[in-house]
Structures are given as C-alpha cells and as structure tokens.
Amino acid sequence: MKELEKIGFGGGCHWCTEAVFQSIKGVNQVEQGYIAVKNEPENFYEGVIVHFNPEMISLHNLIQIHLHTHNSSSDHSMRFKYLSAIYTFSKPQSLEANLILNDLKEIQQNEIITKVYEFGTYKASRKEITNYYKTDPERPFCKVYIEPKLQSLRQNFTDYL
Which residue of 7, 22, 43, 104 lies most exposed, with the fewest beta carbons within 10 A? Predict the structure, then answer.
C-alpha cells in the first residue's frame, strides 16, 4: 500500500467539509479545524486536512468533489471566515493541484474563485464539535446545510462513496 497523502480544503463551514470528506472511499482521516496560509499566520480559516490513499482516490477527484460541494464560484461576504482554498503541503503537490484546478476551471460553467495556497499552520477544533455530522445527523444544522451536500455527493460521485 502506498503511503497516505494529505491535502487541506476550505470553502464553507468545516462541519460540512468534514462530513463530505468522511464519506469518501480512500479517505482515512479528516482533521477539522482552522488553517492559516503560509506567510499569513494571523488569519485562520475554517477547513479540514484530508488524509487519503492515492491508490483509492486521486487528488484530481478530491479537488473535483471539493469544488462541487461548496460555493466555489462566489466571493460572498463570509470569505473572511471561509476561504475557498486548497492547502498544499509541498511544492510538487502545489504544482499538481494548480494544474488540476486550471483543468477543472476550463470545463466549469461558472468562474471558480478557489485558489491553491501553501499550508501554514493549523489549530484543531474543540473535541466537542469534531465529527459533527457523524455524532448527530439529526441536528437542524445537519439537516439544513450538510445533508444537501451529502445528497449531491450521492447523485454526482456515487463511485467514490
């Protein structure tokens, strides 16, 4: 088995992003928390770190899922908290993520505002709010915000669930 890789994603609430990636085959762990971009350590954004097996799920497919499951084409008023981002852990991964993102931008109908950033630092969420959807999918927040994203996953990415 190939060694696990990791990639960071941000775009919407980390509870939603966590639930999406916890649903994907080949993802072994999802760390929910707050991520800062390298060279901007004072700005933390909600996000997740995804540990995945590249033999089971490609970086291309993870990025495609990420773009599809958050508002990757809107520069809305909450971007100060929800940066539409792919956080990379190495120069080769950054180059690959940028190539993938550019390819996907060409086939998208809406303009994608998501960008690739170098991972800076990370602060884990409080234990009480991790695995938010898994611990109680009946919460109103889960029903209103997370369940529609998971339904979209079931409709558009069945092979990866």
Answer: 43
Distances, alpha carbon 72 to alpha carbons 31, 86, 90, 101, 138, in Å = 21, 11, 23, 11, 26
Q: Which helix (H) or strand (E) is 35 found in, with range? A: strand 27-37
Q: Cα–Cα distance between 48 and 68 in angstroms, integer? A: 16
Identity at 149, one-letter amino acid code? K
The one-character DSSP state at 68 is H
Query: Could you tell me the two tokens for 122?
Result: 């990370």
Distance of alpha carbon 75 from alpha carbon 52, whole angstroms: 28
- Dihedrals phi, psi of 53, to nearest 5 degrees: -95, 110
pTM: 0.92
Residues in the chain: 161
Non-local (6+) Cβ contacts of 3 within 8 A are none
Q: What is the pLDDT of residues 92-128, one digit of tens each?
A: 999 999 999 999 888 776 788 889 999 999 999 999 9
